[in-house]
Amino acid sequence: MPKHSRRLLSGIGLLTVLALGATACGGSGDDGSDAKKSVSEADVQAALQKGGTLTVWAWEPTLKQVAADFEKEHPGVKVDLVNAGTGNDQYKALQNAMSAKKGVPDVAQVEYYAMGQYALTKQLTDLKGFGADKLSASFSPGPWNGVKAGGDGIYGLPMDSGPMALFYNKKVFDKYKIKVPTTWDEYVTAAHALHTADPKAYITNDTGDAGFTTSMLWQAGSRPYTVDGTKVKIDFADPGAGKYTATWQKLLDDKLLAPVTSWSDEWYKGLGDGTIATLATGAWMPANLASGVKNAAGDWRVAPLPQWTAGDRASAENGGSALTLPELGKNEALAYAFVEYANAGKGVDTRVQGGAFPATVAQLNSPAFQNTAFPYFGGQQANKIFAESAANVADDWSYLPYQVYANSVFNDTVGKAYVSRTKLADGLKTWQDASVKYGSEQGFTVEK
Amino acid sequence: MTVTTTDASSGTASRRTPLVRTAPRLRSARRRPEAGRPRRSVLLTVLTALVLLYSLVPLLWLVISATKTQEGLSRSSGLWFDGDFALWDNITQTFTYHDGVFTRWLLNTVLYVVVGAGGATFLAVLGGYALAKFAFPGRRAVFAVVIGAVAVPGTALAVPTFLMFSNLGLTNTPWAVIIPSLISPFGLYLMWVFAGEAIPVELLEAARMDGASELRVFFQVALPLLAPGIVTVSLFTMVATWNNYFLPLIMIKDPDWYPLTLGLNSWNAQAATAGGQPVFHLVITGSLITIVPLIAAFLLLQKYWQSGLAAGSVKE
Fold first, then answer.
1. What is the DSSP letter of A355?
2. 8 A C-beta contact, residue A125 and residue A106
3. Which whole number is the average pLDDT over B239-256?
4. Averaged pLDDT for residues B102-123
5. Which chain A positions have a beta carbon within 8 Å of B162's beta carbon?
6. A-chain residue closest to B246, CA distance
7. What start and end residues bound the annotated signal peptide (chain A) (predicted)?
8. Across the interface, which of B167, B266, B276 has its CB nearest the CB of A288?
9. C-beta of residue B266 within 8 angstroms of C-beta of residue B104
10. Pseudo-torsion of CA A371, A374, A379, A384, nearest 10°?
11. What is the DSSP-derived secondary structure letter of residue B153?
12. Which of A198, A278, A447, B227 could cysteine-pair with A168, CB 3.0–4.6 Å?
C-alpha cells in the first residue's frame, strides 16, 4: 500500500507538473504524520493570549466582518483575510503553494465537493484531535457529511450550506396561470406551458453544470460514487440516475431550457426580466438575488424542491464550503480558534446577518432565523423552507476524491447532451468512463 | 525592340528564353504610370471593412456599456445606450469602490510596466546591439537559444517559475512579476535584426577611429539610430506587461499587489460567488479605463511603430 499511496500522492495534483515536482522533492512530510495532532482547549486559549497573525484564504464575503470582530475580541491577533480567487482559482493557488511547501495559508476555504483530494492526500489537518468531533450535533447532516470527505477524519468545520429549494418568479407564474410544480413531472408540464405561452421564456437555464447535475442525482437517490480510501466505484446506471435523465431529457429534447450559463450577465438579465422563471438551487441564493437582480424585487418566491415521488420530502445540497486547516499551515491552535469562532461560535450570527446561509442546527432551528421575513420575496419567511430542506438532506452522498478534475471534464462529456443529439444518459456514461480512466491513471482502484 | 537585340547577341543557347521573358516585362512597364494609384479592389475593401467592424464592435460595446448602471446593463441592448447616462458616475464609483483599490491596481500596473517593460526593452537593446555588431564565439548558440525561447509559450514556464520564486521567497511581492517580465526573447530578436540593418558598421568603425569609447559609441552613435526599433520593442513589452494575467495570477495572492487585470477579474468573480455582489458596470468601466493608456501609447507612437515593424523586412 505505501507504494500505492505514493503514486496517489504524486498523482492527485491539479497540475501534473506540480505533482511530479512534489514527489521529486520528497513526500517526507506526509509519511510520518499518522500520529494524530491534538490541541486542547487550554492550548487554544494560550494561543489566543499569545496572539499572532493568521493568514486566511477565503472568498466568502461575510467573513470580513467576522475577522474584524475576532480581532477586536482578541487584541493580539491579526487576521489577514486574502481572497485568492473563487473556487477553482483558489484551489490551483492552494495546490501550487502546497507543492512549493511555501506560502500555504493557515486557514483555507474549501467547498465540500473539493475536499476529497486534500483529505485523502493528508494535506488538510484532521480536526478530531482538536475537539471537532464533539461538534457533530451542531451541524446539519449534509455539510457534516461534507467535511468528513468520505473518510473518518474531520477535515474542516462547515461554514455554509446549500440545502436546495425551488426559487420561482411568481409574477410569471401568475401571469400565465401556471401552477408551481411540486414534482419534477409537474415541472416538465410547467416548462411546456410557460414556453408555449411566451416563446422567449424558459422554466430555467441549464447549459450543463456538474454541481447542479450531481445535486439532482443526490436528491433522486442516485449514489454514483462509492469511495473507500483509494477504492472507488463509479456507476451512473442506478435507478435514481435513470429517473433524473428521463425527466431532464424531456426538457432537453423539447428545448425547454434557456441556453444561458449561470452567473453570466445574461443570466442576471434573464432572472430579472422573467425569461428564466425558476432556479432549483442552494439556500445561499437570496443574497445573490437581492444584490444582483434588484429590479425583480418582490417578483420571486421560494417553494420546496420538486419531488421525484409526490408527497416525498427528499432534498440535496448544492454548493457550500468549509474552513479547513492546511497541514502545512502554521499556528494551528490559533487557526482552529478562528475557524470555531466563525463557523460554530459568535461568527455564525454575524454571517447570517450578512446574508450567508448557515450550516449550524442552532441557527437553522432558531425562531428568529425561521421567522425572518424576506422583503425581496414579498415578505415570505423563506428560511422555514430552507431549514426543512436542510433537515431532509440524505447524508450518505459522497463525491470523488478527484471531483475537481471530474467536474472539469463534465462539459466535454455530459455537456454534449446540451448541444447535440447525444442523450443525457450516454453523456453520463462518457463522464463515468472519463472519470474511471483518470482515477486508474492516478493509482486508484476503480470499479465500474 | 532594342531589348531583344541585346539579348539575342548574348548567345545562341539562351536565345529563346529571354525573348519569352521580356514580353511581360515590357507590358508591365507600360502600365507603370498607374502603379502610383493602386486599383481599388471591391473584395479587399469589403473584407477590410468587415475586419475593421469585427475589431471595433467590441470596443463600441465597451464604450456604450460603460455608460450604463448595473440595472441598465441588464435591461438594455448591448449596442445602444440605456436611458440613464451614468459614465461619470461609473468612473467615480470605479475609483472609490472598496476604498479606492482600483487606483492602487492602476499604480501597480504602471510600476510593473515602467520597471518590467522598461527594463526588458533596455536589456533587449543592449543584447540585440551586442549580438548584431560584435563577433564572438557562441553567437550561433545564443541565436538558437533565443529562437527556442521565442517558441516556448510563457504559460508553459509559469509553473516552474512559480516554484523557483517560491523557493527564493519572492512570491507575493512585486519582484515576482517584475523579474520574469524583464526577459523578452522576442524583443531581443527584434532588436538584433534591427540593429544589424540600421547601424552601418562603417559608422561604428569611424567613431572608434576617432577614439570614442565603446560606451560612447553605443549611447551616442548606435542608440539614436535604434530609436524606431526601441519604440517598437517597448510597445511590445509594454502591451505584454500591461495585459499580463497569468503570471501575476499564480505569483500574487495579496490584492494590494494586483495589477489591473487581476483586480478587474476579482470584481468580475464577485458575481459568481454565493453572497457576492455583481458589479459588472464597474468591471466594464474599469476595463475601459484600463485600455485608455494603451490606446494613447499606440496613437502617440504609431509612426515609429510602423517604421520599426517594416525595418529589416526588405533586404536592400
1. T
2. no
3. 89
4. 96
5. 96, 100
6. A89
7. 1-24
8. B276
9. no
10. -40
11. -
12. A278
**Contacts (Cβ under 8 Å, ≥6 apart) of A1:** none
Cβ within 8 Å, pair A61-B273:
yes
Segment A244-262 shows an average pLDDT of 95
Whether the pLDDT of residue A144 is over 90: the answer is: yes
pLDDT value, residue B311: 55
On the CB side of B11, CA atoms within 13 Å amount to 4
- Residue A12 predicted with pLDDT over 60: no
Query: For chain B, how many residues are written?
Result: 316
Say whether residue B74 is in contact with chain A using an 8 A CB cutoff.
Answer: yes
Angle at A325 between CA A324 and CA A331, to 5 degrees: 145
Q: CA angle B195-B201-B202, nearest 5°?
A: 145
Selecting from A17, A83, A89 the residue whose C-beta is nearest the C-beta of B255 gives A83
| Other residues' Cβ atoms within 10 Å of the Cβ of residue B316 | 3
pLDDT at A229 over 60: yes
Place of cell 540600421: B198
Q: Cβ distance B74 to A276 under 8 Å?
A: no
Nearest to A355 among B71, B275, B278 (CB): B275
Candidates B99, B163, B267, B283: best to mutate against A (most CBs of A within 10 A) is B163
pLDDT at B152: 85
CB contact under 8 A, A292 and B266: no
pLDDT tens digits, one per residue of B48-90: 999 999 999 999 999 999 999 888 887 777 788 887 888 999 9
Q: Does B154 touch chain A (CB under 8 A)?
A: no
Domains of chain A (ranges, CATH numbers):
2-161+320-365 (3.40.190.10), 164-316+396-447 (3.40.190.10)
Measuring CA to CA, which residue among B244, B271, B240 is closest to residue B259? Answer: B244
| The residue to which cell 462547515 is assigned | A158
Chain pair A-B, CB pairs under 8 angstroms: 104
Could you tell me the CATH superfamily of domain B86-310? MetI-like (1.10.3720.10)
Q: Do A96 and B250 touch (CB under 8 A)?
A: yes
Q: How far apart are CA B104 and CA B88, in angstroms?
A: 20
Q: pTM for this structure?
A: 0.80
Tell me which chain A residues have a C-beta less than 8 angstroms from the C-beta of B156: none
- Of B183 and B312, more confident: B183
Q: CB atoms < 10 A from the CB of B160, how many?
A: 12
- Quick: pLDDT tens for A23-47: 333 333 343 344 467 888 888 899 9
Of A86, A162, A284, which is closest to B272 when you measure between CB atoms? A86
CB of B115 closer than 8 Å to CB of B212: no
Q: Do B171 and A62 touch (CB under 8 A)?
A: no
Nearest CA in chain A to B272: A263
Q: Which of B166, B255, B275 sits opposite A61 (nearest CB)?
A: B275
Q: How many angstroms away from the CA of B83 is the closest CA of chain A?
A: 15
* Position B301 confidence tier, pLDDT thresholds 50, 70, 90: confident
Mapping DSSP onto H, E and C, the string for A377-435 reads: HCCECHHHHHHHHHHCECCCCCCCCCHHHHHHCHHHHCCHHHHCCCCHHHHHHHHHHHH
pLDDT of residue B192: 92
Secondary structure letter of residue A113 according to DSSP: G
Q: Where are the domains of chain B?
A: 1-32, 86-310
- Reported ipTM: the value is 0.76
Is there a contact between B275 and A62 if contact means CB atoms under 8 Å apart? yes
